[in-house]
Structures are given as structure tokens and as C-alpha cells.
Amino acid sequence: MPADTHPQPPDRARRAAGVMRAIARVAVAIAGFGASVGALAQTAEQSLPPLSHDRGVRTGEFTLYPSFAVMGHYDTNLFNGDDAEPGNRPRGAASLRLMPRLVLVNDPSSNITLNFNGVGDARIYFSGDNAAIAEQQAVGGNVGLDIKIGQRRSFSFSFFDYFVRALRASNWETTTTFNRVANDVGARVEFHPGDIPERRPLVISFASSLGFDWFDDFELGNTRTIRNRLTGSWKFLPKTAAIIDSTWDVRTYQTTDLADRKLSFNSTPFRVKAGLNGALTKRISAQALAGWGLSAHDGGSSFNSFLATVGVGVRASESTRFFIGYDHDYIDSYLSNFADVHRFSASLRQRFGQILDVNAVFATRILTYGDLTGVKGNAKISGLTTCGTGACRRDIALDGGLNATFEVARLVGMNIGYLLRSVQTKFKVLSNSGAVLDVGQYTAHEIYASLVLRY
Amino acid sequence: MVHTDADGLLAEAAPGRTWRNPIATLTAAAGDYLRARFGHPARVLVGIAVGVASLVGAAAVVAEEAPPKAADEAALDQKLVQSRAYVDRMRNMISNGFNELEEARKSQNVARVNCVSDAINTMKGLLRLAEGIFLSMQECVSRKDAACTEHEYVKISVAFNKCEDMEGQLKGCGGPSVDGAIDGRPVIEKTVDNDTPELNPTNGLNDMQPKLENMPSASPFLNKNKAP
After folding, report:
1. Scanning every residue of chain A, which has its alpha carbon at the shortest distance from the alpha carbon of B209?
2. Does ipTM come in above 0.90?
3. H or E segment at B39?
4. In A, residues 239-258, which contact B (CB 8 Å cutoff)?
5. Which among B169, B68, B78, B83 has a CA at the least distance from the CA of B123?
């Protein structure tokens, strides 16, 4: 924190920190570096205190936090190509991204709280005469609204809506994209008997939402999902809690095309996990959760195995944080119903002189897909397909990132970063004549720099 | 063939080659060079001894001048910022106190005026004290002296707490029986130990945001419109 920064009251500072973390998460998601799996988002990872505090514009009960970021971005392999693919060699693409952001919150101690968060992402590609790159030019973003009523009472009720316009290039050099629109609208009921919100040890929550996920060009993958989540937490120490978390979804494809070709079926995935999360000492935090997951697809193979999350976070000093963790979960897949995911991750967060934060994150995922036996495709597949013989498709995905955030001035920040995304696999798609069309493996590097103006 | 060098270390050499200990070779070469450059070995040894003694002396002086305890700059800065916040808050309390005094004068309530004045005078004294301590604290921070900084920080905290007490007393002057009920909502301020980890163990339990799975890298196979 710069020397001339006036510290905010604790509540407001904490809220602003939460807002900034939320924005950071959204920005990272927009940048395409989302490597999380499963439904659980708790972590034992310890964060650094916020590098900066936004002033915000007070308008009566509400406070507005606006910002605007300009980012230069270069991707060495926009379409996830590989030299082994004759029609899809790695192709680099430079873009300029404009990202306005608006956060609106009211007094967090109020009985009715509102939290609005909107981030835009306009991408301008410098494509030259390449039509496929030119088609990536689009506007995306996220909008989230959460209104909570009665948080100071034993029962509270929330209404929420999350909208996402996600931009993603195809895995093939083509003018079609994997851009999509998703929205989840729902409600949550919480039971939290006892004291003021800051001193409540027990919280039981049930949330239900209705969502859709529609692609611009890949209509086969359009889905509707009813999502339910029942959670319970008991903070037996101020920073340590026992947790139980269960989710049950009903996911339905809008067309039966993928099911007819035995690629992916409707499902009712279920997960339950329980365990402990929080601080072991003032410097060490840990998480240990275990449970069971069932993907429950209408046809084909289904995931039916244990789930686990373990992690250790260390605050080595006032300016250094380490984290190492492991997850086992599954994700829904448009190819073979699901993928079983083992994820190993590590991170280092280091602050230098109250003006520079450096974050290094690395994750390795081992994805084992479901059985592809009997798939009716429009091409041949080579490599590992039949789980019955112990030869499922298996990918090893590497995701890494190095980001430096500078506090240039009180209301101006700068980000410079590098991202790695890579998949290593023997899986291949062949043409009917046996020529290689698409190999599953690829490696891409992204670099970016952004200037952020905020208030 | 196995050789034993002067230190008793064993090494194997290729048959048919004459093995030479590399350390002995280097030492001999260095000795030759020093003799050629500086003359008799005794003079070289005296020179090295003087040099080592100078380094030891310099290290001792530096160690004596170093602060007694290595200070974490981030923690010191944080304490400084917190102390500045305390002093600013004390100024605000006194400003609000003046408003109370003005209202008391308007209400022509002598007892209340005296009560508010007494409280403000005490708060002014505490503020002067805190400002002096804050200057001393800045000096401690500039020296990276953690013990001194902590000492001054505690003093400012005590002054701040006392000032808060006086503010409470000031607001109680006259009381509800004179000016009716207290207006406004209570303000809750949490004081969090700096050593407490920034971690919410239940964070993320309420997340219901859409989860968008990425497409596996086999897109021509999935898209029926792209049949090869």
C-alpha cells in the first residue's frame, strides 16, 4: 500500500478486497486460463492483502467501483493446432482487448445487500487477410447480480443471476467459433442461527438455478441445466470450518444428435464431499475433503468414483504465499460423456515493496475420458478409445501462468503476464482415407500486457 | 588403476594414463603464479592475513551497526499506515466533537457544554500526544527498527483507544433524556490481528456460476457439418 493511501474502515476494505479478487477471477477467466475442475471452489490457498484499494463513487447507500483496462494480447496458437495437422498448423494472432468493469455494492452490513459485477471484453484482432482470425473479433463479458434479503436474521433469501458471454476460438482453423452464451438464474435459502453475520458458526444453504448454455456455431452442444446445491459449514474456529457440499444437476441436450452418435448423453451428475478447510496455524492452512461422484449419464459410460481435494497453503512471510494441492473430480465432456480428472497444482505469490505482485501458477491435469466404443463419427479415431481393454483416451494438460501486477499510481495499475496451455495425448482424428486430420496434442503460449485505470 | 591423493581420497584413472590430482595441480599453478607476481611466499601469506583481518573487522563493525532485529519492511509499513489511520480517526473524532459542542451551545445546556468541552480538551491532548509519537514512529520505520516501531505503535494504539473512550463519553453528554433517542444505526468496526491469515474457510460454498466445459481437442470429429 503506498504511503499516502488512507486506509479504509475494516469492513469496507475487506469488501473492496473481495470485489478486487472477484474481478481478478473474472479477468483470468476471460483470459482463458481456467483450469479448475468440479463443483467445489474452496481452497486452502492464502491470498496476499489487496495491493490497492479502489476509492469508489458513493451514491447514497451504494458505492460504484468503475475501471477500464486496455490489454495487448498475443497467442502463438489460437486454434490449438499442431505441426502434425496438415490443415491446422499453429497460427499466431495478436489482439487488442478493451475491458470495462463496473461493480456496484451497498452497505454490506445492511439487511438487504446488493452486489452487481459487470465486466466487458471487446476483442479486436489484427488478422491481416486471415478470415478465420477475423471472425474471432467479438464482444464478450460477464455480468453477475446477487441480492440478499435478511442476512441479519436466522433465515435469509437470495436471488441471483449470472450471465456469461464466453469467447473461444475453435480447435480448428475455421471461421466458426466456440463462442457461447450462458446464463444461470436462481435463488438461495440460508439458515444461519445465532449471532451477527460475523459471528455465526453454522450455516446451511440450499440453492437452485435454471441455466442454459448456447453456442453460436456448435448447436449440437446446446444444453439446459437445472442445478441444485446443498451445503453446510460449521466454523468451529474463526478461520477453520467443517464442510459438507453436495450438488445434483439435471443436464439436457437440446438435440439428440450427440446421443444418436453415442458421443454424449443427457445426465444427472451428483457430487458430495465433506471434510475440513481452514487455518491450522497462523501461517499454515490446509484443506482435506473427500466424497463420491456419479455422472449418471443416460447412455454410454459414467463416472462413478471417489472425489478428493487436498491442499496446503503457507504464509512464508508477510509478502510470500505458497500453495500446493491435488484434486480428483470429473468434468462433463462433449466427447465420451465425461473425463476423469486428476489435477496437481502449485502457486507462488510474492509481493515486492508494496508496488509489485508476482503470481506464478502451474497445474497439471491428467484427463481420462469415458469409453468411446461404438461411437458413430464422421471420421475415424485412432489412439486410445476402448476403456474395456484399459485403453481409454488419456490427455495430460499443462496450464501455467506468470503474472506481474504493478501499482503504477494510486488509480493506475499495470499487468504483464504469460500463459501456457498444452495438451499431450496420442488421440487422433483421421479422414476416411486415413490421413491425419486432427491430433489432440497442441501447445500454445500467450503473452499480454494491460493498463488498468480504476476509481 | 586406483590412486590415493594427499587427503586420502580415492579416484580411478584410465589405464595407461598418468593421473594427477587436479587440486594439487591447481594449487601448484597458483603458487607459481603468486611467486612470479609477488615474490617470496611469506610475503603473500602476510598479505592474505592482513586482508582477512580487515574483512573480519569490517564485518564486525557492520554487524554492530545493523539493527538489533531484522525487520520485515511490509509489516513496518503496515503498522505505519495503521497508525496514520488512528491519528486521522482521532482528528475526525475531534471534528465531530466540535459539531456536538456547537449543538450543545445552541441548546443552551450549560451542563452539556461543559461535559463536551472537557471531553474535547482531553481528546485534543491525546491527539497532540499521538502526533508526536507518530513522528517518532516514522523515524523508527526509516531506521527499520522493528522494536522501536512496535513500541511507538502500542503507544499510539493506547492513545487512540483512550480517545475512543472520550468520544463515547462525549456522545453521552446530555444523553437521551435531554435530546431524545439516539439516532442512526450502530457502527460495527472489527479489529483484526495483522497476523491472522486472510482466509475464509467457507469461501466458494455459495458459488452457482455457470461452469463452461472446454471442447476436447477433436473438433472436426464432433461437428457433423465438417465431415471430411
Report:
1. A162
2. no
3. none
4. 239-241, 243, 245, 257-258
5. B169
